[in-house]
Amino acid sequence: MASSIETQKLDDIATWMIPIQSTNLPSVLSGVFFMDGNPLPDDCLTMNNLMWDEETNSLILPVSAPVQWTFHRSVLGWLLLRGAQLSRFRYKIQFDDESLQRARIIPIIFGVPVAKWMIHASMCRAENSENGDIWLRKNLWFGGLSRVGEYVLRRVVDEAGQHTPAFQDMLSKVKLDCLVVARHS
After folding, report:
1. Structural contact between residues 151 and 139, judged by C-beta atoms closer than 8 angstroms
2. Which candidate, 108, 122, 117, places its Cα nearest to that of 150?
3. Do 58 and 50 touch, CB atoms closer than 8 A?
4. Which of 21, 34, 93, 107 is the most buried (most CB within 10 A)?
């Protein structure tokens, strides 16, 4: 059965999209990130609360896990969220090495990784972003025929729960109400 959905406010995301368990997640991946320029009806994500695999430099990011991802409070946002729940959609983020500069992002639908020839998704840390505040999300569809869906991941809440300089810019680009999968009590 699908988890319940609740409405939250993005202007107080630092109070509800928080770490609830200690993990070994690298600091460059901690906090809350805004998907600036994302054409889909979702805005923010966190990798907090996810287990980092130090041996493989990777993690699994379940899109519909409780309070892991935000969706627009709209019919399209609701449909995307429900679709993610039904398909058990998640990403495997696999970094090239321990420097955590570049990663391949492997979409997994119904437990099956999407073939690289269909989409080669990646993220790389921006050159001027030593602390991981800015990541470039790239997509190559069908061997490079299209680059649809590329955007910039900007950290808006840092590891300590404080707003970054990108926070106010995010608020100017989003609707304040969002949908999230509710945290179980």
Report:
1. no
2. 122
3. no
4. 34
Question: 148: which 2 tokens?
Answer: 């649809």
Q: What is the dihedral of CA 6, 150, 50, 9, to 10 degrees?
A: -30
Q: What 8-state DSSP symbol labels residue 184? A: P
The answer to whether the CB of 67 falls within 8 A of the CB of 180 is yes
Q: Give the Cβ contact number of residue 48 at 10 Å.
A: 20
Residue 122, SS3? strand
E strand spans, 10-95: 32-36, 42-46, 58-62, 69-72, 90-95
Tell me the mean pLDDT per 10 residues along the chain, length 185. 85 95 91 97 96 96 96 97 96 96 97 94 91 92 84 96 96 97 82
Q: How far apart are the C-alpha atoms of 141 and 30, rounded to whole Å?
A: 28
Domains held by the chain: number: 1
Tokens of 57: 């430099």
Residues in the chain: 185
Q: What is the CA radius of gyration of the chain?
A: 15
Phi, psi of 86 (to 5 degrees): -65, -40
Please report which residue ranges of 58-174 form alpha helices under DSSP H: 75-87, 166-173
Query: What pLDDT does residue 185 have?
Result: 59
Range of the domain at 20: 5-181
